[in-house]
Amino acid sequence: MHLVPREFFCQRYGLTEDRVTRILESAVAQGADHADCFLEFRVAQTASLEDGVVKKATRNVRQGVGVRIVVGPRAGYAFSDEVSLPDLELAARTAGYIGTRGAAETPVSVTPALRTPHDLYAVEPAPTDAPLSEHVALLERIDRVARAADPAITRVQAGLTVEQRVVLVATPGGPPVGDVRPLVHLGVTCIAERGGVRQQGSSGGGGRFAVAELAARADTFAREAARQALVNLDARPAPAGTMTVVLGPGWPGILLHEAVGHGLEADFNRKGTSAFSNRLGTRVASELCTVVDDGTLPNRRGSLNVDDEGTPTGRTVLIERGVLRGYLQDRLNAALLGMPLTGNGRRESYAHVPMPRMTNTFMLAGEDDPQDIIRSVPRGLYAVSFGGGSVDITSGRFVFSASEAYLIEDGRLGAPVRGASLIGNGPEVLTRISRVGHDLALDLGIGTCGKDGQSVPVGVGLPTIRIDGLTVGGTQA
Questions:
Q1: Residue 13 host element (H or E)
Q2: Would you give the distance in Å from CA 370 to the centre of its chain?
Q3: Which residues contact 194 (CB under 8 A, 6 or more apart)?
Q4: Percent of the chain having pLDDT more than 70?
Q5: For 259-274, what is each residue's pLDDT tens digit?
Q6: Are residues 217 and 289 located together in one domain of the fold?
Q7: How far apart are CA 37 and CA 335, in angstroms?
Q8: Could you say which of 233, 268, 290 is where a domain stops?
Q9: Is 183 left (phi over 0), alpha (psi -120 to 50) or beta?
């Protein structure tokens, strides 16, 4: 049965559209520039396997309502774990206690959403309707497939998470906007041991689609995690120094996300704390670079029909042939900056205030053959996958650890190396990109982005690129 968010919240909690709208209109009538309400109902299931045994399985339900009142550049926010009209009214009054407008403050006009919502991930039945026995059978199969890859695989860990979220965003200026959001994710980690040496490899994926589609990819994830563990088992210590680095397609786009993407979010630029502040229309990257954020890709982990403020998502060109063209906007920052909405207002849950966040962020393909890019490097590093990393938004400085990398020697891929880390400055690295491949790929659906204590699912992507003169931290000189 097709689930309609407006009907769902009305039938479950008795919240009629008129009653909710009147509460928000009352807040605006008392001097607020904008008011909105975010309703959420979420069901999530997890199951995890270790040492061949499914040791943990959970199912939880979370519900709540959050109300935001905007006055000038300030926003008051309050939420309740209970969903009812009295709770909504109390949250609205609490959020309204942000003080009177200061003498120097002028009203802010918050732009309403004008685009039509998408239909990017209609999934029926809900992922959470699948019985636990199917999840257990899937994890046990992954364990068998991974162990069969090689006798050196001694441990396998796997985790499956499925969820269904129903959200509804109400504002005084129009009808409520809802969304039903399925999300599935599968992660696999393998440990390989040989001669007293132990290494690991990881793989996985997911998106806004059915569990059956994820199950069809499970064997591939298991074999990939085992392969990466075996490669790292044979890897030599990574060299250190300044060298040419080639990033492979797909998941290495996480470096673009962290080192550049966060700096293009509107709140950092409005406050002048980003390395890209006040640089619209100027060259910030090699002319080979065009970077976009696109929340409209069907079934992708980072995609949304509407963002968490009810604005339909879009495709935003951030950097075009090296020139900075735009920032990622939520309603408040777009109003304060006088810029159009981009559909990037996101929040972790009803208990969190929305802010500008990425959806699926990637660099567009170029014209070079990926093999030609590798052949163009006399000596360097080819990084295929990354683990942890960190970035300073203000300076743009970053450090990323490569979980799979290879030496490039005389234009050919050489031995695998371990312990390599990439160190640099995001805006500066963009200017050092000298070759861009035609093999753009998006990640398999594993990205989770953290900002100000909130986590949201995202997508990243990259074609093969060559970066000249990047600092590599290794395990030997």
A1: helix 5-13
A2: 26
A3: 152, 233
A4: 96
A5: 899 999 999 999 999 9
A6: no
A7: 18
A8: 233
A9: beta
Q: Give the pTM.
A: 0.95
β-pairing, 360-363 with 53-71? unpaired
In tens, the pLDDT along 38-67 reads: 999 999 999 999 989 998 999 999 999 999
| Distance from C-alpha of 3 to C-alpha of 14, rounded to nearest angstrom | 16
pLDDT score of 389: 75
Which of 42-46, 114-118, 337-341, 365-369 bottoms out in mean pLDDT, i.e. has the lowest?
A: 114-118
The first and second tokens of residue 231, run together, are: 């490669």
Structural domains of the chain, count: 2
| 28 lies in the same domain as 126 | yes
Residue 57 and residue 109 in one domain: yes
Cβ atoms 459, 361 nearer than 8 A: yes
Contact indicator for 310, 113 with CB cutoff of 8 Å: yes
Is residue 375 predicted with pLDDT exceeding 60? yes
How far apart are the C-alpha atoms of 328 and 93, rounded to whole Å?
A: 30
Which residue range(s) make up the domain with 28? 5-233
Same domain membership, residue 266 and residue 195? no
Average pLDDT over residues 320-334: 96
Compute the distance between CA of residue 252 and CA of residue 381 in angstroms, rounded to an integer. 13
